[in-house]
Amino acid sequence: MLILITFAAVCRFVPACSMRDCRDKIDPLAGYSSFWVFEGVRSYVTAKIEDGLPSPHAQLLLGFIIGSDSYKKFSRFNDVLLRTGTIHVAVVSGYNISVVAMFITKILGHIYSKRNLVAVLTITALYALLSGFEPPVVRAWFMAAAVIFVKFRGQRTYAILPLLYAALVMIILNPAYIYSLSFQLSLLATSGLFLFSPHIESLVKKAVNAGDLFANTISSTLSAQILVVPLLAYTFGSISVVSIVVNTLILWTVPLATLLGALYVFAGPAGVLIKLPLVFFLDIFISLTEFFSHFPYAVIDIKKFS
């Protein structure tokens, strides 16, 4: 925890980006693809989804699957994501990969068998590869893999250390990462999931006698928000009041839409059968974010108080 607090303190003094130049600060290595061989796959996925789905559904799904930020072309929808505090969900990050990993773990039963561990790591690695294994996704996968492996070992004390060691190694290899907003968000969101999720999930189950899916959704949302919200507030100069509520309501749609989207792309003619439920889950995400974005005080401008 001391290491995490130290890292957060360092990030506090890293120059943050304004809305105008944030795209450049999100990743210093944007545009570089570690695995150019996957560009053909990315092009196929993009064409398949954009030809088959309406907008902004297609752009949102591309964010889930390959980390594309093409949703920014739709300024209104981009503003909706910012106002509802869901911008970090719309692209592949450590948060998304961790959520997908947790979802797969729930399906398999638990993470404490080697078979399940290999399955989760393999599926999340394929997910990362599909996005071209670009720098933000490489970081995200290593962070998520560190968390998954520690859970497999059943370690509780100092279990956060492998995640922080992975982050430290990446910073040593490329010090520019310390200036990357996506790196900071990935680390903080994944750390939040790891540090707080089990405890919050247990409290939710006791408080409202909730099922696993509901408790997991609540705990995942709150855990990530605890560490992410302060950084987003400092970076963008505003706080989304509805963020926790919206994230709780939509989070469960992300792994479902991601998995259905991947099946839709590679299912051939059978993709027609998958399209209906896929659009349904994307509709839920879009409708809820748009609904809450219209609240008059959905966002508080903290610059007024600085």
From TrEMBL:
Gene Ontology terms: cellular component: plasma membrane
Pfam families on file: Competence (PF03772)
Subcellular location as annotated: Cell membrane
Highest taxon, organism lineage: Bacteria
Main location (coarse class): membrane
Keyword match Transmembrane: yes
ComEC/Rec2-related protein domain span: 77-305
Record protein name field: Internalization-related competence protein ComEC/Rec2 protein
Organism of origin: candidate division WWE3 bacterium GW2011_GWA1_46_21
Lineage of origin: Bacteria, Katanobacteria
